[in-house]
């Protein structure tokens, strides 16, 4: 026999209601997440190209030299790793900037709410 389920009205510990979000804050969150998703898509596309497309055309790049080495060797041995590290660093820098913009919007929203309460 299954245990009876308490209805939401009878729950002794109901979940608190989420705070109301202003339209400006909702817009700031949408912009933040849209930027985040676009950034991830662009960086992953660059990573895909470096990982899969460049090796597919490496035989055509055999005559090109970089630092005394043939370009396909350099990309396979060093270049791809440097690109991945650069992508991670770029993501960190751009997301820190986006975090600061979102924090500024949150601070402005709190200031407006406090001014309205006075």
From TrEMBL:
Pfam families: DUF4212. Residues 30-101 form the Sodium symporter small subunit domain. The keyword Transmembrane applies. Keywords: Membrane, Transmembrane, Transmembrane helix. InterPro entries: Na_symporter_ssu. The chain crosses the membrane at residues 35-59, 71-94. This is Putative solute:sodium symporter small subunit. It comes from Paraburkholderia caballeronis.
């Amino acid at each position: 026999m299954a245990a009876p389920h308490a209805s939401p009205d009878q729950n002794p510990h109901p979940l608190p209601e989420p705070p109301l979000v202003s339209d400006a804050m909702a817009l700031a969150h949408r912009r933040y997440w849209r930027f985040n998703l676009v950034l991830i898509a662009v960086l992953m596309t660059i990573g895909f190209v470096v990982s899969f497309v460049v090796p597919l055309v490496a035989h055509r790049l055999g005559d090109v030299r970089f630092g005394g080495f043939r370009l396909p060797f350099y990309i396979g041995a060093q270049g791809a790793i440097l690109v991945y590290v650069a992508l991670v660093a770029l993501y960190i820098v751009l997301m820190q900037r986006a975090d600061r913009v979102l924090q500024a919007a949150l601070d402005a929203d709190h200031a407006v709410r406090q001014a309205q309460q006075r």
